[in-house]
Amino acid sequence: MWRRVASLSSSISSSFLAQTASRLNSWESLTTGIAQQAKGVIAPKEKTPFITFVLGGPGSGKGTQCIKIVETFGFAHLSAGDLLRREIASKSADGAMILNTIKEGKIVPSQVTVKLIQKEMELSDNHKFLIDGFPRTEENRVSFERIIGVEPNVVLFFDCPEEEMVKRVLNRNEGRVDDNLETIKKRLTVFQALSLPVINYYSEKGKLYTIKAIGTEDEIFEQVRPIFAAFEVCSVSAMILSIQLCCFFLLHFESENLTTALFLLNLFGIFVMFLI
Ligand SMILES: Nc1ncnc2c1ncn2[C@@H]1O[C@H](COP(=O)(O)OP(=O)(O)OP(=O)(O)O)[C@@H](O)[C@H]1O
Ligand SMILES: O=c1ccn([C@@H]2O[C@H](COP(=O)(O)O)[C@@H](O)[C@H]2O)c(=O)[nH]1
Ligand SMILES: [Mg+2]
Protein backbone atom coordinates (compact mmCIF):
# COMPACT_ATOMS: atom_id res chain seq x y z
CA MET A 1 0.00 0.00 0.00
CA TRP A 2 2.75 2.48 0.90
CA ARG A 3 4.23 1.83 -2.50
CA ARG A 4 1.03 2.94 -4.22
CA VAL A 5 0.80 6.11 -2.15
CA ALA A 6 4.43 6.94 -2.83
CA SER A 7 4.38 6.35 -6.58
CA LEU A 8 1.29 8.53 -6.83
CA SER A 9 3.06 11.40 -5.11
CA SER A 10 6.28 11.03 -7.15
CA SER A 11 4.37 11.06 -10.45
CA ILE A 12 3.16 14.62 -9.78
CA SER A 13 6.38 15.78 -8.22
CA SER A 14 6.87 18.88 -10.37
CA SER A 15 3.73 20.64 -9.23
CA PHE A 16 2.85 22.76 -6.25
CA LEU A 17 0.42 20.07 -5.16
CA ALA A 18 3.18 17.48 -5.19
CA GLN A 19 5.41 19.57 -2.96
CA THR A 20 2.55 20.04 -0.54
CA ALA A 21 1.65 16.35 -0.67
CA SER A 22 5.26 15.37 -0.10
CA ARG A 23 5.48 17.56 3.00
CA LEU A 24 2.17 16.21 4.23
CA ASN A 25 3.42 12.67 3.67
CA SER A 26 6.66 13.39 5.56
CA TRP A 27 4.86 14.89 8.51
CA GLU A 28 2.15 12.28 8.53
CA SER A 29 4.83 9.56 8.48
CA LEU A 30 6.69 11.04 11.39
CA THR A 31 3.57 11.88 13.39
CA THR A 32 2.26 8.34 13.23
CA GLY A 33 5.76 7.13 14.08
CA ILE A 34 5.92 9.19 17.27
CA ALA A 35 2.42 8.21 18.37
CA GLN A 36 3.04 4.54 17.69
CA GLN A 37 6.41 4.57 19.42
CA ALA A 38 4.76 6.11 22.47
CA LYS A 39 2.03 3.48 22.51
CA GLY A 40 4.42 0.68 21.65
CA VAL A 41 2.29 -0.59 18.75
CA ILE A 42 3.53 -1.83 15.40
CA ALA A 43 3.13 0.48 12.40
CA PRO A 44 0.87 -1.01 9.72
CA LYS A 45 2.27 -1.32 6.17
CA GLU A 46 -0.27 1.22 4.86
CA LYS A 47 1.81 4.10 6.28
CA THR A 48 3.76 6.21 3.81
CA PRO A 49 7.45 5.38 4.25
CA PHE A 50 9.79 8.08 5.53
CA ILE A 51 13.12 7.41 3.84
CA THR A 52 16.54 8.80 4.75
CA PHE A 53 19.58 7.99 2.64
CA VAL A 54 22.83 8.12 4.63
CA LEU A 55 25.79 8.91 2.40
CA GLY A 56 29.51 9.62 2.87
CA GLY A 57 32.91 8.16 2.07
CA PRO A 58 34.32 4.95 3.56
CA GLY A 59 34.86 5.41 7.29
CA SER A 60 33.05 8.76 7.44
CA GLY A 61 30.97 7.43 10.35
CA LYS A 62 27.66 6.56 8.66
CA GLY A 63 27.08 3.33 10.57
CA THR A 64 28.11 4.88 13.89
CA GLN A 65 25.67 7.79 13.51
CA CYS A 66 22.88 5.52 12.26
CA ILE A 67 22.97 3.66 15.59
CA LYS A 68 22.43 6.97 17.40
CA ILE A 69 19.61 8.02 15.05
CA VAL A 70 17.87 4.68 15.60
CA GLU A 71 18.15 5.06 19.41
CA THR A 72 16.82 8.63 19.38
CA PHE A 73 14.28 8.69 16.56
CA GLY A 74 13.17 5.07 16.16
CA PHE A 75 14.16 4.39 12.56
CA ALA A 76 14.85 0.96 11.04
CA HIS A 77 18.52 0.81 10.00
CA LEU A 78 19.22 -0.87 6.65
CA SER A 79 22.93 -0.90 5.85
CA ALA A 80 23.41 -1.87 2.19
CA GLY A 81 26.96 -3.05 2.97
CA ASP A 82 25.71 -5.25 5.83
CA LEU A 83 23.00 -6.76 3.60
CA LEU A 84 25.64 -7.59 0.97
CA ARG A 85 27.98 -9.09 3.59
CA ARG A 86 25.06 -11.20 4.84
CA GLU A 87 24.64 -12.57 1.30
CA ILE A 88 28.31 -13.55 1.27
CA ALA A 89 28.03 -15.24 4.67
CA SER A 90 24.90 -17.16 3.64
CA LYS A 91 26.72 -18.45 0.53
CA SER A 92 23.84 -17.34 -1.71
CA ALA A 93 24.06 -17.56 -5.52
CA ASP A 94 25.40 -13.98 -5.69
CA GLY A 95 27.75 -14.42 -2.70
CA ALA A 96 31.01 -15.02 -4.61
CA MET A 97 30.36 -12.16 -7.04
CA ILE A 98 29.58 -9.80 -4.14
CA LEU A 99 32.74 -10.80 -2.26
CA ASN A 100 34.95 -10.10 -5.28
CA THR A 101 33.24 -6.78 -5.91
CA ILE A 102 33.72 -5.66 -2.29
CA LYS A 103 37.38 -6.77 -2.26
CA GLU A 104 37.91 -4.62 -5.35
CA GLY A 105 36.07 -1.66 -3.80
CA LYS A 106 33.67 -1.67 -6.75
CA ILE A 107 29.87 -1.42 -6.78
CA VAL A 108 27.57 -4.45 -6.81
CA PRO A 109 24.93 -4.37 -9.62
CA SER A 110 21.99 -2.17 -8.61
CA GLN A 111 19.36 -4.84 -9.10
CA VAL A 112 21.01 -7.10 -6.48
CA THR A 113 21.31 -4.37 -3.83
CA VAL A 114 17.87 -2.86 -4.43
CA LYS A 115 16.20 -6.28 -4.16
CA LEU A 116 17.91 -6.87 -0.79
CA ILE A 117 16.79 -3.44 0.47
CA GLN A 118 13.27 -4.01 -0.84
CA LYS A 119 13.00 -7.34 0.98
CA GLU A 120 14.11 -5.77 4.28
CA MET A 121 11.66 -2.88 3.88
CA GLU A 122 8.80 -5.28 3.27
CA LEU A 123 9.72 -7.41 6.27
CA SER A 124 10.01 -4.41 8.58
CA ASP A 125 7.24 -3.33 10.94
CA ASN A 126 8.68 0.18 10.85
CA HIS A 127 7.91 2.74 8.17
CA LYS A 128 10.86 5.07 8.90
CA PHE A 129 14.00 3.80 7.17
CA LEU A 130 17.64 4.82 7.36
CA ILE A 131 19.27 3.43 4.22
CA ASP A 132 22.98 3.48 5.02
CA GLY A 133 25.62 3.51 2.25
CA PHE A 134 23.14 3.58 -0.62
CA PRO A 135 22.69 4.84 -3.36
CA ARG A 136 26.38 4.86 -4.31
CA THR A 137 25.89 5.64 -7.99
CA GLU A 138 23.40 7.44 -10.19
CA GLU A 139 22.41 4.03 -11.54
CA ASN A 140 21.73 2.84 -7.95
CA ARG A 141 19.56 5.90 -7.38
CA VAL A 142 17.49 5.48 -10.54
CA SER A 143 17.11 1.76 -9.92
CA PHE A 144 15.82 2.36 -6.36
CA GLU A 145 13.28 4.90 -7.59
CA ARG A 146 12.11 2.55 -10.35
CA ILE A 147 11.85 -0.63 -8.28
CA ILE A 148 10.74 0.78 -4.91
CA GLY A 149 8.78 3.68 -6.39
CA VAL A 150 9.73 6.31 -3.81
CA GLU A 151 12.22 9.12 -3.36
CA PRO A 152 13.99 9.87 -0.08
CA ASN A 153 12.56 12.50 2.25
CA VAL A 154 15.99 13.35 3.67
CA VAL A 155 19.57 12.73 2.47
CA LEU A 156 22.41 13.00 5.00
CA PHE A 157 25.97 13.47 3.77
CA PHE A 158 28.79 12.85 6.26
CA ASP A 159 31.56 15.04 4.90
CA CYS A 160 34.92 13.85 6.25
CA PRO A 161 38.52 14.55 5.15
CA GLU A 162 40.11 11.58 3.33
CA GLU A 163 43.01 11.38 5.80
CA GLU A 164 40.60 10.93 8.70
CA MET A 165 38.52 8.34 6.82
CA VAL A 166 41.62 6.25 6.03
CA LYS A 167 42.74 6.43 9.66
CA ARG A 168 39.33 5.31 10.95
CA VAL A 169 38.98 2.43 8.48
CA LEU A 170 42.47 1.11 9.24
CA ASN A 171 41.66 1.20 12.97
CA ARG A 172 38.21 -0.38 12.60
CA ASN A 173 39.32 -3.91 13.42
CA GLU A 174 36.11 -5.71 12.43
CA GLY A 175 37.81 -8.16 10.05
CA ARG A 176 36.28 -6.63 6.92
CA VAL A 177 37.92 -7.77 3.66
CA ASP A 178 37.95 -4.18 2.38
CA ASP A 179 39.60 -2.59 5.42
CA ASN A 180 43.11 -2.46 3.95
CA LEU A 181 45.01 0.41 2.38
CA GLU A 182 44.85 -0.95 -1.16
CA THR A 183 41.05 -1.35 -1.17
CA ILE A 184 40.46 1.90 0.71
CA LYS A 185 42.27 3.82 -2.04
CA LYS A 186 40.02 2.19 -4.65
CA ARG A 187 36.91 2.93 -2.59
CA LEU A 188 37.89 6.57 -2.27
CA THR A 189 38.32 6.84 -6.04
CA VAL A 190 34.93 5.19 -6.62
CA PHE A 191 33.37 7.55 -4.05
CA GLN A 192 34.73 10.64 -5.81
CA ALA A 193 33.79 9.47 -9.29
CA LEU A 194 30.42 7.76 -8.75
CA SER A 195 28.96 8.72 -5.38
CA LEU A 196 29.60 12.49 -5.36
CA PRO A 197 27.28 12.99 -8.38
CA VAL A 198 24.44 11.40 -6.36
CA ILE A 199 25.17 13.77 -3.48
CA ASN A 200 25.16 16.74 -5.88
CA TYR A 201 21.86 15.55 -7.35
CA TYR A 202 20.16 15.63 -3.94
CA SER A 203 21.78 18.95 -3.14
CA GLU A 204 20.15 20.44 -6.24
CA LYS A 205 16.82 18.92 -5.19
CA GLY A 206 17.08 20.65 -1.80
CA LYS A 207 17.07 17.35 0.11
CA LEU A 208 20.70 17.27 1.21
CA TYR A 209 21.88 17.89 4.78
CA THR A 210 25.67 18.07 5.01
CA ILE A 211 27.25 17.10 8.33
CA LYS A 212 30.85 18.01 9.14
CA ALA A 213 31.96 14.53 10.18
CA ILE A 214 34.93 15.48 12.33
CA GLY A 215 35.03 15.63 16.12
CA THR A 216 33.70 13.12 18.60
CA GLU A 217 30.76 10.86 17.76
CA ASP A 218 28.56 12.87 20.15
CA GLU A 219 29.61 16.20 18.66
CA ILE A 220 28.71 14.94 15.21
CA PHE A 221 25.36 13.65 16.41
CA GLU A 222 24.54 17.13 17.72
CA GLN A 223 24.54 18.25 14.07
CA VAL A 224 22.27 15.36 13.08
CA ARG A 225 19.74 15.63 15.91
CA PRO A 226 18.12 18.97 14.89
CA ILE A 227 17.42 17.70 11.38
CA PHE A 228 15.06 14.96 12.55
CA ALA A 229 13.85 16.98 15.54
CA ALA A 230 12.65 19.70 13.13
CA PHE A 231 10.58 17.18 11.17
CA GLU A 232 9.04 15.94 14.41
CA VAL A 233 8.22 19.45 15.64
CA CYS A 234 6.53 20.22 12.32
CA SER A 235 4.46 17.06 12.45
CA VAL A 236 3.37 17.55 16.06
CA SER A 237 2.52 21.24 15.42
CA ALA A 238 0.48 20.30 12.39
CA MET A 239 -1.38 17.66 14.37
CA ILE A 240 -2.21 20.07 17.23
CA LEU A 241 -3.28 22.76 14.79
CA SER A 242 -5.57 20.35 12.98
CA ILE A 243 -7.24 19.29 16.23
CA GLN A 244 -7.73 22.94 17.27
CA LEU A 245 -9.20 23.86 13.91
CA CYS A 246 -11.45 20.84 13.95
CA CYS A 247 -12.91 21.88 17.31
CA PHE A 248 -13.37 25.44 16.08
CA PHE A 249 -15.17 24.45 12.91
CA LEU A 250 -17.39 21.91 14.62
CA LEU A 251 -18.50 24.52 17.16
CA HIS A 252 -18.90 27.21 14.53
CA PHE A 253 -21.06 25.16 12.21
CA GLU A 254 -22.79 23.35 15.11
CA SER A 255 -22.29 20.13 13.20
CA GLU A 256 -25.05 21.09 10.72
CA ASN A 257 -22.71 21.57 7.85
CA LEU A 258 -20.03 19.11 8.81
CA THR A 259 -18.92 18.32 5.25
CA THR A 260 -18.23 21.95 4.42
CA ALA A 261 -16.47 22.42 7.72
CA LEU A 262 -14.16 19.47 7.15
CA PHE A 263 -13.45 20.58 3.58
CA LEU A 264 -12.46 24.06 4.75
CA LEU A 265 -10.40 22.54 7.53
CA ASN A 266 -8.46 20.40 5.11
CA LEU A 267 -7.82 23.30 2.76
CA PHE A 268 -6.58 25.45 5.62
CA GLY A 269 -4.47 22.63 7.04
CA ILE A 270 -2.73 22.07 3.70
CA PHE A 271 -2.11 25.82 3.36
CA VAL A 272 -0.61 26.12 6.85
CA MET A 273 1.56 23.02 6.46
CA PHE A 274 2.90 24.34 3.17
CA LEU A 275 3.83 27.61 4.86
CA ILE A 276 5.66 25.78 7.68
N1 LIG B 1 33.66 10.69 15.19
C1 LIG B 1 34.48 9.65 15.19
N2 LIG B 1 35.73 9.78 15.64
C2 LIG B 1 36.58 8.74 15.62
N3 LIG B 1 36.28 7.51 15.17
C3 LIG B 1 35.04 7.32 14.71
C4 LIG B 1 34.07 8.38 14.68
N4 LIG B 1 32.93 7.90 14.16
C5 LIG B 1 33.15 6.62 13.87
N5 LIG B 1 34.40 6.26 14.20
C6 LIG B 1 35.04 4.96 14.02
O1 LIG B 1 35.50 4.91 12.67
C7 LIG B 1 35.27 3.63 12.10
C8 LIG B 1 34.38 3.79 10.87
O2 LIG B 1 33.10 4.21 11.27
P1 LIG B 1 31.78 3.64 10.59
O3 LIG B 1 31.90 2.17 10.49
O4 LIG B 1 30.63 4.21 11.31
O5 LIG B 1 31.94 4.32 9.15
P2 LIG B 1 31.10 4.07 7.83
O6 LIG B 1 30.89 5.39 7.19
O7 LIG B 1 29.91 3.25 8.12
O8 LIG B 1 32.17 3.26 6.97
P3 LIG B 1 31.92 2.24 5.78
O9 LIG B 1 31.40 3.00 4.62
O10 LIG B 1 33.27 1.67 5.51
O11 LIG B 1 30.95 1.20 6.28
C9 LIG B 1 34.67 2.77 13.19
O12 LIG B 1 35.68 2.02 13.81
C10 LIG B 1 34.08 3.79 14.17
O13 LIG B 1 34.07 3.30 15.50
O1 LIG C 1 24.95 -0.02 -2.15
C1 LIG C 1 26.05 -0.59 -1.99
C2 LIG C 1 26.67 -0.67 -0.74
C3 LIG C 1 27.89 -1.31 -0.62
N1 LIG C 1 28.46 -1.86 -1.70
C4 LIG C 1 29.75 -2.58 -1.58
O2 LIG C 1 30.00 -2.93 -0.23
C5 LIG C 1 31.19 -2.29 0.22
C6 LIG C 1 31.08 -1.95 1.67
O3 LIG C 1 29.97 -1.09 1.88
P1 LIG C 1 29.84 -0.22 3.24
O4 LIG C 1 28.63 0.64 3.08
O5 LIG C 1 31.05 0.60 3.31
O6 LIG C 1 29.71 -1.18 4.35
C7 LIG C 1 31.39 -1.10 -0.72
O7 LIG C 1 32.72 -0.68 -0.84
C8 LIG C 1 30.91 -1.73 -2.04
O8 LIG C 1 31.89 -2.57 -2.58
C9 LIG C 1 27.86 -1.79 -2.93
O9 LIG C 1 28.38 -2.29 -3.95
N2 LIG C 1 26.67 -1.16 -3.04
MG1 LIG D 1 29.23 1.38 7.39
Automatic annotation (TrEMBL):
A ribonucleoside 5'-phosphate binds at residues 85, 106-108, 133-136, 176, 187. PROSITE patterns: ADENYLATE_KINASE (PS00113). Binds 1 Mg(2+) ion per monomer. Its cofactor is Mg(2+). One of its GO terms (biological process) is 'de novo' pyrimidine nucleobase biosynthetic process. It is an enzyme of class 2 (transferase). CMP binds at residue 140. It is found in: Cytoplasm; Nucleus. It catalyses: UMP + ATP = UDP + ADP; dCMP + ATP = dCDP + ADP; CMP + ATP = CDP + ADP. Keywords: ATP-binding, Cytoplasm, Kinase, Membrane, Nucleotide-binding, Nucleus, Pyrimidine biosynthesis, Transferase, Transmembrane, Transmembrane helix. ATP binds at residues 59-64, 172, 215. GO terms for molecular function: ATP binding; nucleobase-containing compound kinase activity; phosphotransferase activity, phosphate group as acceptor. It comes from the Eukaryota. The chain crosses the membrane at residues 227-251, 258-275. One of its GO terms (cellular component) is nucleus. Its main location: cytoplasm. Its EC number is 2.7.4.14. Belongs to the adenylate kinase family. UMP-CMP kinase subfamily. Consists of three domains, a large central CORE domain and two small peripheral domains, NMPbind and LID, which undergo movements during catalysis. The LID domain closes over the site of phosphoryl transfer upon ATP binding. Assembling and dissambling the active center during each catalytic cycle provides an effective means to prevent ATP hydrolysis. Monomer. Catalyzes the phosphorylation of pyrimidine nucleoside monophosphates at the expense of ATP. Plays an important role in de novo pyrimidine nucleotide biosynthesis. Has preference for UMP and CMP as phosphate acceptors. This is UMP-CMP kinase. It comes from Gossypium lobatum. The lineage of its organism: Eukaryota, Viridiplantae, Streptophyta, Embryophyta, Tracheophyta.
